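It is worth pausing here to work through a concrete case rather than discussing structure prediction in the abstract. The textbook approach is simple: state the sequence, then state the predicted structure, then interpret. We follow exactly that order.
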Amino acid sequence: MNKHKFPYNWTLKDAVFTKDKGKVFSCFACGGGSTMGYKLAGFDVIGHNDIDIKMIEVYKENHKPKFSFHESITTFAKRKYLPKELYNLDILDGSPPCSSFSMSGNREKDWGKEKKFREGQELQVLDTLFFDFIDLAKELQPKVVVAENVKGLLLGNAKDYVRKIYTAFDESGYYCQHFLLDASKMGVPQRRERVFFIAMRKDLAKPFLHFADMFTKVPKIDLTFKEKPILFKDIYQPNVSNTKHKKDSNLSKIWGKRLKTDNSVGDIYKREENRLSCFTVSLIKSDEIPPTFTRQDRTLLFDEFRSINKSEACSIGSYPQDYNFKKNNYGYLIGMSVPPVMTAQIATEIYNQWLKLI
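Step two, the predicted structure:
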């Protein structure tokens, strides 16, 4: 078995969290994916914020946070009397909801619109939440801010939002830079590309400044990862069944016509019936890295007529095998989360290259 810096198949009961690398607060924390990454890297995650009460309950069950705020980031960022510990953070972490920038969504058609989303069941304008998060950073002034989002934020007209994000960080007292990272190169069994904005408070940045040209200056940090790929056969669990699709005879029939070149059920439908259908149902092949795991959990194994099971899903998301999802769909929660190992890799480099030298 390949050696990896952090475990993608692990349990909370056997994990050792040293909590000696610094203090973190997590916004848009969902069930705690990024939180577990910081804990694996040795950080002490003292609290979280989320709008979804179900995710709040899951987070509390698994992490027992000192501080828990169930409210929109919009109102949370406007608070002026937060606990003292939140004004002495090493890292403020957040994953602002990103569906309005996703390439699988409506993108421009949804920008600026108030919509009701599953998370919290209340009206929100998703493309402004990132700036509410930066407003919180301006208030709390942590040493470092980490914000994760979808690759689609870097594409097309969404690039204008990136410019605004840079401006907002600058006006809040931070140097900002962004990195497009692939989880499959970071010890995660999943081809998942995400953009991370990493910002350092300006008064701390002088020893790390890198002058790329006469107009650009950013604190230098290397986020290059070269972990060996993890294939589906490395996490395959044949004795933990998932029979979700067993009774779907139509799907079974079309799946039976698959070819090795097919990557989704949609590829089969297009070839066999010349129609567009089920392109979001991925075919997971044993000798390949699993594709991006989404909250819809739309998968079929190439070699077996079933979806991935819970154990495989946890490994693909680098979630602990004993995580308590309570009554929530584990696929939804894992698909919504930043893979813990992905966060652990980034947090480790932030500590080694920045925080321990400040």
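Step three, interpretation. The chain has two domains: 23-228+338-357, 232-334. The first helix runs from residue 33 to 40.
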